[in-house]
């Protein structure tokens, strides 16, 4: 058992011995989950290891064309939000006044 410190950003370091033992390597991804009040951190070895991780977000019983429509709207919204973040405060205010008219 190891005791680790948690930073103000919510980060902690996995001790080197555990990283080696579990196969955690630099620039690798990890799968983090919660089970019965405990955090579980597992190495994500490849794409297939993510199988089922998005299951709770699935749109069960929804027609594929509706899912595609929702996805396209989400992409459009995200593109607009990214663009607006690049604008200066003055440009944002001007854009806001244009939307109201």
Automatic annotation (TrEMBL):
Keywords: DNA-binding. GO terms for molecular function: DNA binding. InterPro entries: SpoVT-AbrB_dom (IPR007159), SpoVT-AbrB_sf (IPR037914). It comes from the Bacteria. PROSITE patterns: SPOVT_ABRB. Residues 1-46 form the SpoVT-AbrB domain. This is SpoVT-AbrB domain-containing protein.
């Amino acid at each position: 058992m190891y005791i680790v410190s948690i930073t103000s950003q919510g980060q902690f370091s996995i001790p080197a011995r555990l990283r080696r033992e579990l196969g955690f390597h630099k620039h690798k991804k990890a799968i983090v989950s919660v089970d019965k009040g405990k955090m579980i951190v597992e190495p994500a070895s490849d794409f297939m290891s993510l199988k089922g991780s998005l299951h709770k977000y699935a749109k069960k019983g929804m027609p594929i064309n509706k899912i595609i429509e929702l996805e396209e709207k989400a992409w459009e919204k995200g593109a607009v939000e990214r663009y607006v973040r690049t604008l200066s405060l003055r440009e944002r205010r001007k854009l806001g006044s244009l939307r109201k008219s």
